[in-house]
Amino acid sequence: MAKITDINSDAEYEDGGELTRAEQRMLAQAKRAGKKETKSKAKRILSRFLVALCTLILVVGAVLAVVYRDELNIDGLKRMVSYLSLEKDEDGQAEEIFYDSDDSNCFAQLDNALLVCSESIIQLFSQSGNTYISEVVTLENPTISADGAYAVVYDLGGTELYGIAGKQLAYTQTADGTILNARMNANGYLTLITKQTGYKGVITVYDSKYRAKVQVSISSAYVMDALVSDDGKTLAVLTIGAEDNAFATLVSFYDVSTGELVDPSPYTISGGLAVDLQWQDEGVLLQMDNGIQYVTPDAGVTGSWVNDEGYLRGYAFSEPGYQVMIWSKYQTGYQGNLELVNQTGALLAEISVSQEVYSVSTAGNYIALLFTNQLIIYTYDEGLTQYASLVDTAGARQVIMRSDGSALLLGSESATLYVP
User: Fold this and answer.
1) Statement: residue 357 has pLDDT above 70
2) Is 274 helix (H, G, I), strand (E, B) or coil?
3) What is the pLDDT of residue 35?
4) What 3-state DSSP class applies to 256?
5) CA-based diameter of the chain, in Å?
6) CA dihedral of 27, 33, 38, 44, whole degrees rounded to 10
7) Choice among 60-69, 250-259, 339-348 with the minimum mean pLDDT
8) Cis omega (within 30 of 0) on the bond before 264?
9) Under a CB-based contact definition with an 8 Å cutoff, are residues 131 and 168 in contact?
10) What is the pLDDT, as a whole number, of residue 229?
């Protein structure tokens, strides 16, 4: 008597006769087919369940995004991940980074690290307070220029300079002549301006390894500022000299590979005094004492905006989309406004300001204003919107905005990271 196996239950039973091999193979094939069908049904059920679950998550996420659209953003998620291990209090302030209290302290941000320099020491701290660099120096007028992961610390009016790349002190040099100014770009190119015998300004461009690329010596005008473009190809030079028996501000562009003037520069800038410059897109944005001028190597002044009724109290270079300026209506007092202007000279946004602004800083889409005892962070998207605020800023006198929406508050002897 043969045993027959049920293909669905694997249970065995007996019938009254022998099964042929062909019949046994058929039964085995039927059994395998039944198991495949069962697995297929399970997979279809699981797949439908997962699709339904994903749909539910998307619907709930969309509803939450609408309801909490002011609280949810990509930068907020980035901060959650970046500062997950950083201990913060209920106001969003992390633990303090301590440094020596010194009236000569100057500060800069290298990526997310804090650079502090005084007459006697250069220090670089991580956001949790670990020390990357601690270099004893002797500087009479310590000054910092930083961009991205690069910085130069130099003695204004002296000869010593220190180049920093990432988390390391990259080079230490003694300049040939008195240092009048030094500027660092985002790729580590240093533009150094010195005073040397026979010239009113000697400009030398160095690459990130402090190798000289080009030198321009000027005797006809006083060199106020100079900066090489981020691609290292063009040098912008700001000078003040006499033109038609009157003082004039000139912007000249030089080819870094040859040291020759880029035709047809230089360009004359009239109507105000330039106080700073920055490369943006294909040209340089000049911060004037009465507005802005945007100058390109091939077309000259292509954008201009002038404020004839206010006094410049502060400014901050930002992304190429806008420039931040704070104006006071009167020579004394704090009644005024904050204005956003683009490269073409168009006024993009404006808000009134009725308190003393200790510090202004921008990064990405964020604008930070530090008042006497309050920090306000705005965002710009076709208008200014208050994003976050912090009261009782514990004596902070400077703010450095970060592109993720957090802000570094700097006091006389410590710094605190504020994470909205």
Assistant:
1) yes
2) strand
3) 53
4) coil
5) 126
6) -170
7) 60-69
8) yes
9) no
10) 97
